[in-house]
């Protein structure tokens, strides 16, 4: 009976964790990469993500150089339901711009928001809700953690927001609209136990003369010690203002269920300009007001019974039968 009870509790915990989809036992941060996940933080959860960055830019054709540092931040809040969150995000930069094409070289300081957006994200589809009703193989770790093609079916989220550009911003032309829309389609797949693949397609500054289309592909891996994870990311950007291909790599470490630290380095492949950059940051969530809410799905019992509870009762009944046989 003890063995059966152990498997029963193990199965119940597996189902409980997966069925609530949005909220996770440990913090789920968009850092350290630039992509956003398809999942929301969870109803009534407040999450802060922020850090500092440094960057060196050298433009070979224009003979210019930029030495920069700055701060970036994101404040996320789960509103009304598990699938919805609102967010306030931005990056503020200080730099020294040097024009070596003049004699003597011209040097001056600048500062302003590189990005400043307010928006909302909603999760449209979560395949893991259905898979949460599948019974785990309690006798095979490999069966539960190996690659399955259906794991590539992604969760899908949509973000819609607005960019805000304040007056006298040195990083944007004076003709840039003060407010412009931004939309992102985000997908997220979990496979082979410890791998996560996220993709973003973003159409930014839609009403601007320098509207921008970009994509981000992020692959993350959790190590044997689950507190450590590493990622590799590629971002492509295309607009009349700026076009490039960027690569980032780094990692994150969990100091607790609600506290993460991270770091990454990155570079561009162009020399107009060449970009080298690095960043460190933290993520912290306040989840004292969160209450688990089961998101209804078609596979649940039509009488409204909790499928996780039925699974637990089945495991326990099987254990009782074995004891009676003895």
Key terms:
4 helices, disordered N terminus, mainly beta, 48% strand, 326 residues, Porin, globular
Description:
- With 326 residues, this protein is mainly beta.
- The chain has a single domain (21-293), classed as Porin (Beta Barrel).
- The protein is 14% helix and 48% strand.
- It is built from 4 helices and 12 strands, in the order αββββααββββββββα.
- Strands 1-2-3-4-5-6-7-8-9-10-11-12 form a 12-stranded antiparallel barrel.
- β7 (195-204) and β8 form a beta hairpin.
- The chain is globular and about 65 Å long.
- The relative contact order is 0.20.
- Residues 1-21 and 297-312 have low confidence and may be disordered.
Concise description?
InterPro entries: FApF. The protein is 14% helix and 48% strand.
Strand and helix map with partners:
Blueprint (H helix, E strand, L loop, with lengths): L1 H18 L26 E14 L4 E15 L5 E16 L6 E20 L2 H4 L9 H5 L9 E10 L14 E13 L3 E10 L7 E11 L5 E12 L4 E13 L2 E10 L5 E13 L20 H19 L1
Antiparallel strand pairs: 1-2, 1-12, 2-3, 3-4, 4-5, 5-6, 6-7, 7-8, 8-9, 9-10, 10-11, 11-12
Please state the average pLDDT score. 82
CATH fold category name = Porin
Distance between the termini: 10 Å
Helical content stands at: 10-25%
Q: Give, in order, the helices and strands.
A: HEEEEHHEEEEEEEEH
Strand order of the largest sheet: 1-2-3-4-5-6-7-8-9-10-11-12
Q: How large a portion of the residues is in β-strands, by DSSP E?
A: over 45%
Structural class: mainly beta
Pfam families: Phenol_MetA_deg
Organism: Kordia antarctica
Signal peptide: 1-21
InterPro entries: FApF (IPR025737)
């Amino acid at each position: 009976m003890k063995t059966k009870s152990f498997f029963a509790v193990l199965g119940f915990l597996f189902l409980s964790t997966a069925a609530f989809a949005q909220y996770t036992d440990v913090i789920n941060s968009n850092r350290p990469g630039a992509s956003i996940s398809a999942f929301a933080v969870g109803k009534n959860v407040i999450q802060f993500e922020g850090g500092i960055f440094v960057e060196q830019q050298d433009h070979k054709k224009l003979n210019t150089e930029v030495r920069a540092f700055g701060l970036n931040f994101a404040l996320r809040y789960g509103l009304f339901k598990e699938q919805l969150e609102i967010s306030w995000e931005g990056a503020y930069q200080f730099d020294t711009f040097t024009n070596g094409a003049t004699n003597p070289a011209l040097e001056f300081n600048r500062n302003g928001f590189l990005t400043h957006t307010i928006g909302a994200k909603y999760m449209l589809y979560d395949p893991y809700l259905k898979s949460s009703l599948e019974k785990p193989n309690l006798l095979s770790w490999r069966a539960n953690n190996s690659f399955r093609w259906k794991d590539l079916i992604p969760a899908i989220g949509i973000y819609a927001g607005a960019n805000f550009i304040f007056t006298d911003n040195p990083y944007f032309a004076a003709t840039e609209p003060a407010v412009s829309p931004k939309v992102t389609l985000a997908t997220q797949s979990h496979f082979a136990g410890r791998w996560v693949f996220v993709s973003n397609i973003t159409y930014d500054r839609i009403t601007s003369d320098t509207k921008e289309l970009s994509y981000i592909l992020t692959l993350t891996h959790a190590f044997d010690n689950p507190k450590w994870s590493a990622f590799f990311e590629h971002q492509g950007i295309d607009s009349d203002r700026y076009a490039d291909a960027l690569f980032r790599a780094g990692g994150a470490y969990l100091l607790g269920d609600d506290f993460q630290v991270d770091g990454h380095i990155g570079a561009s492949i162009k020399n107009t300009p060449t970009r080298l950059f690095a960043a460190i940051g933290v993520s912290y969530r306040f989840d004292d007001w969160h209450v688990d809410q089961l998101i209804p799905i078609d596979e649940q019992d039509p009488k409204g019974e909790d499928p996780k509870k039925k699974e637990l009762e089945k495991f326990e009944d099987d254990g009782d039968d074995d004891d009676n046989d003895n």
